[in-house]
Design goal:
heterodimer; A: 22 helices; B: mainly alpha; elongated
Chain lengths: 558, 103
């Protein structure tokens, strides 16, 4: 019995960032198949029809490789901001963070702040340079003046590793979620997600993927805000009233109003912060978004809009969680056997959904459930496109064909790659159904922060970075992040069944990220080859382009 | 040809000015965000009691709430501050540099 709970919990938790929710034992949830939810299915069907229409429209507009990978650089700053926010706000944000606030109060909000704080820093230090230097993938930037074959291959491996792990987590999450919200079978969800994802990406490329993301972001923001407003209206829109009633209703009492035990260990707190902050800046599907806007100015605006949406949504989620303590937590209808404080119907990740039902009836519940599923669909599409681009643009066109592939061939390879990734994702989603995969999300962010991010930031900021330094540094970060996660409790004990973890901390970033930087620096400094000298010299031109945008792809300066 | 243009841009004193001003501004804002954020995380880790103080005597709401929401708001406003400055100053300087380099 305990194994079943663990297994199901892990699977649900795996959808996006729900890994965090696992940190709080009270949040660990079990998913059971719920009765068929017709409202949700109808609304999801409307969403799918709409987005397929957009895909058809996008397919007609997608002619060149630039259209396919980067929407021809024709996305506006505001549109891209919404799309970035969409990539960032997963179903786990809605369900996992609401339930975390529901169970732990302010601790849940601390997690929200951790997710949020990377955005301003990305704007100040990266956004403009990314746009000025990049074309289709972040490997375009890291290999700008370094060896195309080696550095690009490493960046592509880093991207694909992140994409595949993240895809598995999202697939398993989708399967669990659909059981929970729609009352359908696990495998159906995985297949539906896989098929739709391949259709969006193969036919519509970046244009369709971006619009799916924008629509979903708007739906998620509106749905969440509506539920929050209806819920808060019951407290006369007074935070003090809401807080007082929540404290009275919560088993944790007054403790929900201040930090508790969730981040009590400073090493974990800092490591988690670093991983979330810089992992975000190393996620290939997020980085790709910076290449879809026309210039650096639009790139800046995207981050401004995205930061607003993400920050606003986290506040909405926190209020939902707090209101759910009173509205859901005291209503026997939402607990099994009508026992308040017992097991919540559908499991611990359900407060957001129950709250929607409590304040807006089955229609609002159906809407929110459809939005949650649409969210997963949008996130996997972004991932699949990023993975397919790494395969076609980086590996096929630039490593294998040495930049001599025709655009049409490159796009064809990309479409085949997205089909391949879709099949792989469905298979892995089904294989991993009963596996404990909670570690995957931590691993994904760890790799992004330790392998992709250090090489990317150094290639933009440090003249001295050489090919050898970038390759060895990236490998060191990748290996360290994987090794730490494997030796930590999440894999060594929970998955492999050993009694004690080899390594006491679960968050790798605080160790693996500095290691990657150190190795990049050390190897680059020791690299006295002629090529290294040439690469250092080439930094000058790259630096001017990064700063001024002169020569940037699609820039008006020509 | 583009290398020659890059060379010309690099030799323009305005380029140094742009880089210096923009870098100083971006790093200052980053330091503010990171400083506030990691101070907050350290308080959470070492002295969480501090955040449990009620905002007024008899109130249930603690100072943790306005501090948390305030951080979210402040960080967003700082992105706005950066963009305003970039649109008004840096972009103007940047386009001057590009124009002079293309002459």
């Amino acid at each position: 019995m305990r194994r079943t709970i663990l297994k199901c919990a892990a699977a649900l938790v795996a959808s996006g960032w729900m890994e965090l929710a696992l940190a709080a034992p009270a949040v660990v949830a079990e998913t059971q198949k719920q009765p068929l939810n017709i409202h949700a299915i109808v609304m999801f069907f409307i969403f799918v029809s709409g987005t397929l229409g957009i895909t058809y429209w996008a397919a007609k507009r997608t002619k060149s490789a630039s259209d396919y990978y980067a929407a021809g650089g024709g996305i506006t700053g505001t549109q891209n901001g919404l799309a970035i926010a969409g990539d960032y706000m997963s179903a786990a944000t809605l369900l996992g963070l609401t339930s975390l606030v529901y169970a732990k109060g302010f601790d849940g909000f601390i997690y929200c702040i951790c997710f949020y704080v990377g955005w301003p820093v990305i704007l100040f230090l990266m956004a403009e340079r990314l746009r000025n230097l990049g074309k289709f993938t972040f490997a375009d930037i890291t290999s700008y003046r370094l060896d195309q074959t080696q550095v690009r291959t490493m960046a592509a491996v880093g991207s694909l590793t992140v994409v595949i792990f993240y895809l598995i987590a999202q697939m398993v999450g989708a399967g669990q979620l659909i059981k929970l919200l729609f009352g359908l079978e696990y495998w159906m969800a995985v297949v539906i997600v896989g098929v739709l994802m391949v259709i969006y990406v193969t036919f519509g490329g970046m244009i369709a993927t971006t619009w799916v993301q924008i629509i979903k972001a708007v739906l998620l923001l509106c749905g969440g805000t509506l539920v929050m407003l209806l819920a808060v209206s019951r407290f006369g829109f007074s935070f003090e009233t809401l807080a007082t009633k929540a404290v009275a209703a919560s088993p944790e009492g007054i403790k929900i109003m201040a930090p508790g035990t969730l981040l009590a260990d400073p090493v974990t707190a800092v490591s988690l912060s670093l991983g979330l902050m810089f992992g975000t800046a190393g996620l290939p599907h997020i980085l790709m978004r910076f290449f879809t806007v026309p210039d650096a100015k639009a790139a800046r605006k995207s981050v401004f809009v995205a930061t607003f949406c993400v920050g606003f949504f986290f506040c909405v989620v926190a209020l939902m969680g707090l209101a759910a303590i009173v509205i859901v937590g005291q209503d026997p209808a939402y607990f099994e056997g009508g026992k308040i404080g017992g097991k919540m119907i559908g499991g611990g990740n359900m407060p957001a959904m129950h709250l929607a039902q409590a304040v807006g009836g089955n229609l609002l519940l159906g809407f929110l459930a459809a939005v949650a599923f649409a969210t997963i669909l949008a996130v996997v599409s972004g991932l699949a496109l990023a993975g397919a681009t790494a395969i076609s643009h980086d590996i096929y066109a630039n490593v294998i064909k040495k930049g001599k592939a025709s655009e049409a061939d490159e796009v064809r390879v990309s479409k085949l790659a997205s089909l391949g990734l879709g099949v792989l994702a469905v298979l892995l989603g089904i294989v991993f159904e009963k596996q404990n995969i909670a570690f995957l999300v931590g691993l994904t962010f760890g790799i992004a922060a330790s392998c992709n991010f250090p090489v990317l930031i150094l290639s933009m900021y440090w003249k001295g970075l050489t090919t050898k330094g970038a390759v060895w540094g990236g490998i060191a970060g990748l290996v360290a992040a994987v090794a730490i996660v494997v030796c930590s409790k999440a894999v060594w004990v929970t998955v492999l069944g050993n009694p004690k973890p080899l390594f006491p901390y679960e968050q790798p970033a605080i160790f693996s990220m500095p290691l990657a930087f150190f190795v990049c620096w050390l190897v680059s400094t020791l690299d006295r080859s002629a090529r290294a000298a040439k690469e250092k010299l080439a930094f000058e031109d790259q630096y001017v382009r990064a700063q001024t945008g002169f020569g940037a792809t699609g820039a008006a300066a020509h | 040809m583009s290398t020659a243009v890059y060379e010309r841009i690099r030799r323009n004193p305005k380029f140094d000015e742009l880089v210096a001003r923009r870098s100083r501004f971006a790093w200052t804002l980053s330091a503010i965000v990171l400083g506030i954020y990691f101070t907050f995380i350290m308080v959470v880790a070492f002295n969480p009691k501090l955040l449990a103080t009620p905002i007024a005597s008899g109130a249930t709401t603690t100072v943790a709430i306005p501090i948390g929401v305030g951080m979210v708001l402040l960080f967003w406003l700082l992105t706005g501050v950066y963009i305003r400055r970039a649109n008004r100053d840096f972009d103007v300087l940047n386009s001057e540099i590009l124009k002079e380099a293309m002459k």
